[in-house]
Amino acid sequence: MSQNAFFGGVDIGASATKVAIIDDARQLVASDVRKTGVSFEACAQEAMDSALASCGLNLSDLSRIFSTGYGRHNVVFAHGTRTEIACHARAAHHFFPHRITVVDVGGQDNKIIHIGADGKRENFKMNRKCAAGTGAFLEEVAQRMDIPMDQLDSLAREASSIVHMGSYCTVFTKTEILAHLRAGKKIPEIVAGLIESVVKRIVEMNPLAGDVVVSGGVVDHNPVLAEMLARHLGHAVHILPHAQLAGALGAALLAAEESK
Amino acid sequence: MSTEKPKATFKKIHSTDKMKVIMEQHFRELDEAAKTKSRKIAWCTSVGPAELLRAAGFLVFFPENHGAMLGSTRMATDLIPVANAIGYSPDICSYLTADIGSYIKGTSPISKAYPGISGPPRPDVLVFNTNQCRDVHDWFNFYGREFNVPVIGVQTHRGVGDITKAHIDSISTQIKALVPTLEEIAGKKLDYDELKRIVGLSRQCTDLWKEVLEIASNVPSPLTFFDGTIQMGPAVVLRGEQRAVDFYKELLAELKQRVKDRVAAIDGEKFRLYWEGMPVWGKLRELSTQFAELSTCVLASTYCSSWVFPALDPDDPFDSMARAYIELFIVRDENYKEKYFENQVNKYKIDGMIFHDAKTCPNNSNNRYGMPERLAKKYDMPMLVIHGDLNDLRCYSEEQARTNIEAFIEQLAEKKS
Hints:
- The complex is a heterodimer.
- Chain A is an alpha/beta fold.
- Chain A has two domains: about 5-85 and about 245-260, Nucleotidyltransferase, domain 5; about 100-240, Nucleotidyltransferase, domain 5 (2-Layer Sandwich).
- Helix content of chain A is about 40%, strand content about 20%.
- Chain A is built from nine helices and ten strands.
- In chain A, helix 2 crosses helix 9.
- The mean pLDDT of chain A is about 90.
- Chain B is of the alpha/beta class.
- Chain B is built from 17 helices and eight strands.
- Chain B has a four-stranded parallel beta sheet, sandwiched between helices. In chain B, strands 6-5-7-8 form a four-stranded parallel beta sheet, sandwiched between helices.
- In chain B, helix 3 packs across helix 5 and helix 8 (about 165-185) crosses helix 14 (about 315-325).
- The radius of gyration of chain B is 21 Å and the shape is globular.
- In chain B, about 50% of the residues are buried.
- Classes of the chains: A alpha/beta, B alpha/beta.
- The interface of A and B includes residues 70, 109, 126 and 129 of A.
């Protein structure tokens, strides 16, 4: 295996740290995902060590490593940094090499990136400072409702109708949920309403034109989000393969390209 | 192991030393006059009728300048909540709330910068022009009640397209109507020849300031927007005075020499950006450093051009002041603004624009009615909107802004590749 060239990407996000290792055929050979915690440096090292161990490589086997995400400047073993916008765009273009709109739903921010057929960004937009409509919103509300995060997707699918949320404020939504619970609304219907709220926040950010590709940890764990978005848009949307790894994978792809 | 080690270098503008001297003189003269009551003091909004006030014999203090000082020293964020607590909303102008908080707490950046001065000088009259916003009127009304002094001013039209004679007559009449009150407070008649002289000096100052700003059209630019936010001080608070004219002559000469020597404000200038909207006063250092590290020169802005008044004419002081103070960008409609940007994009050879959406300054946040989207389409030019505020750093996410800017420069690099 080690006669090939290998490249690494590390994405230190607000919620999770992801590592992707690819070979010179741009195939994913190893990965790791773990909670970011409080020490970015240590977390990046542990995630990289774990990914390397899983494919029998050493750090020195990686020709080039790029880091991305909020903690991108804390990865001491990286050769360079790129923004998560660049990395998500690159990963999406890798799997969908034509004109696309990428929607990344992250732990604390959302991004919409319009990419041309040549892979170049035409424009991008991040959500405003408020974390409404991001993974943090779902986490906060799920915690208030005492629902494990990994049950949101299946609960939303059980709903026969949706309880529509009126506010875009996370705090107000939590209060609103109390009112719905008092009124006897069913948990699955409320959860479906929460996912729908994320969809609403996405579509009000920027026009979603053409082929839409969704990336990020939220959709990886809750593919129902992509289905709801598709219903809202009136056409199919794609979930990026390895959606949660998109940032790390894009970083690795950029590292590979820039090592030429 | 990281091979990317960006480094920012800044080149000193030597004329800044002179600017510091005349700015200190300005504050010490005001303080002396307030303590000895040797001269009457007028507070004036940033684009209020300062020439008239000087001609009437007043020393002039500009609370918006104080607001910017509160922002740049980062005192504002602690003082804004003090004003919030007495009913001034966190959603209104954060110059206003920071300044009122500063007054209530009895703390000011002026006293920190210039030992011996306790803070802003007590006013004898407060003179506003709502060409900036309605907030300035409410701001001055607060002090009118506190100091029990008259609050007089000019109510300017908003969303103005073509400027008509009716507009000029309206503003000119309002400026003239200020004269009797000012004469009464000053205790003397207005000297019309002195008014003409001061309007003439103001015009000279503004012409030189315009030339300073436009020197950034050179490639590479010898000046950044961040330099401009510092060097504009005299154009705001000393226009109508000879020392402001002298300063800008010196600054202009230094910048012309830079152009001759091909000295770039940002080494290896790769990208040229336009800043639209208010500065984030408390983050000038961080932002200028980040742009320098990205080999990017933010070189022009609408904001710094707000003190360019080509209409001023010493032979027609009242009507020309009226025109100068209503033809400002901030007063105009969206069509005018769009055409204005077209001119700026071409003049400064801009690669992209950054719009600062300042939470508490809707009048100076021009992204809110689709302008960036229209311009992006029209010029095939990347646009970026940063959410923040002029003074209230509670509204600013450093990490989000940094990532947005970095991604924007990546996009510009991709576009050029």
